[in-house]
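Technical appendix A lists one of the benchmark inputs used to test multi-chain prediction within the project. The record comprises two sequence entries:
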Amino acid sequence: MDKEKVLNLAKLARVELRDEEAESLSHEFDAILDYVGEVKRIAITDNQQLTTDNFSIRNVMREDTKPHKSGLFTNKILAQSPAREGDYIKVKKIL
Amino acid sequence: MPDISKLSIKSARAALHKRAFSARELTRVSLDAIEEQDNGVHAFLEVFDDALAQADEADRKIAGGVDLPLLGISVAIKDNMLMKGKRATAGSKILEGFVAPYDSTAVKKLKEAGAVIIGRTNMDEFAMGSSTENSAYGVTKNPHDLARVAGGTSGGSAAAVAADMVIVAVGSDTGGSIRQPAAFCGVVGLKPTYGRISRSGLIAYVSSFDQIGPLAKTVSDAETIYRTLKGQDSMDSTVISEHTYPINKKFSKTIGIPREFVESEGVGDTIKKNFLESIDKFKSLGYDVVDIELPSLKYALATYYIIMPAEASSNLARFDGVKYGFHKDGKDGIDDYFQTRGTGFGKEVRRRIILGTYVLSSGYYDEYYGKAVEARQLITNELKSIFEKVDLFLTPTTPNPAWKIGEKSQTPLEMYLEDIFTVHANISGCPAISIPSGMTGNLPLGIELTAGLGREDNLFAASKEFLGE
């Protein structure tokens, strides 16, 4: 993987990265991907092996009812925000 | 005065009950131990200023005849569990200044059980690491040798128990983060079945692997904490019920040894020797020890190091410098994200977010993430079928004892390989426990038992026999 690719990924992930770090990450990723690439060697010959019915994963839903009173947690949550204006979180203009 | 090194939850509860000492005295001893030793060990990021007030409340309840499983017992929590009104940083600069607006379910249950929650312990940033060297707030040292790591990522919790600062602590385990530091520090560490304990209020890392669990000196203490924390919760729909995994096989004292897996490259000679001695000990306790084949386990670590960064990169998208925590100003709205995340996240976190972005990106998704999901299913199926034959399987917890601080920080892969014996439990959801199995010089060693889904009972039974509890 080259440095430009790392910088592009960092851009997608919204992480500011210095050039030197991108350079060293590119070499580290080569080593890591070489190792984790082992999974490509697994041979799934028997499709039955991949049935997921014994994985016990299923969706758990609940009725969308009993909302709490509006504004009950507003102050608590907003108190954690780095910038606030009234009952809103303040951010820079987008347009 | 109470001596924490000689106390278990049970004996401390008995002493509190008959007023041999008060909860305040017990908490005072913990606070003094932290004061004396934690400059060197650095297990704690914060000792809560209301610890003695919590102890006084416990004493009032004791005086009023109240009896609860943890009443008056001081417990330390990992820095990724929210406690209302307290800071929580997950060992990261990006959560600097964050104060939890609510209790995590784990903390709520500890409080309901009467525990004195004494402080929050150090951890690798967002639980990414194997040594607690990745914390933004300094390295936790191994109480057995301060030049060595305590293990990670629940290194602070393990060190706090090992140094007798607390009787028990709570951690979280995504790929070995409870079991590995437990082994390095010579304590007991349990990762329960996936979904056993609610994760509401636990700062998410890999949502399909993360699980909360105890670190303690004895299996009985670990079991007490486990029983306190487990159970369904309307705040976390991933929690399993008592019926999810029906118990349909009686414990028959049969332990499998995945011989080929234990002989993996990079496993040290002292570990192999201790492992063979541990097998002999189980045999002498009347266990039937049989060799088993688990061929897909050789893919476990690679599978883990694909799924983990993928889920981490998604989970950590929430840290944007807008809603809470650290904010660094950029030149415009989007640059605020870049600056906040570039500065707020440490090096290992940046590495894993970018790696996760890669394995999920178009063109590589099928090649890496898709394949890893298949491998995960293969491993899970293989473990499921092996537990039809054996109650448990045994491995070392770690391929080597605690390393010197800085020794494995040069290349990330070198440290990743140290997780070889623990990740299968998170990949499959199976419960696993690390228990002390001896020493090499002044360094503790640990062995790990893995059980079938929902079978923590088998872990407790065999571990108690092994440790003579």
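Residues 113 and 335 of chain B are 46 Å apart (CA to CA). Chain B has a mean pLDDT of 97. Comparable benchmark entries are summarised in Table A2.
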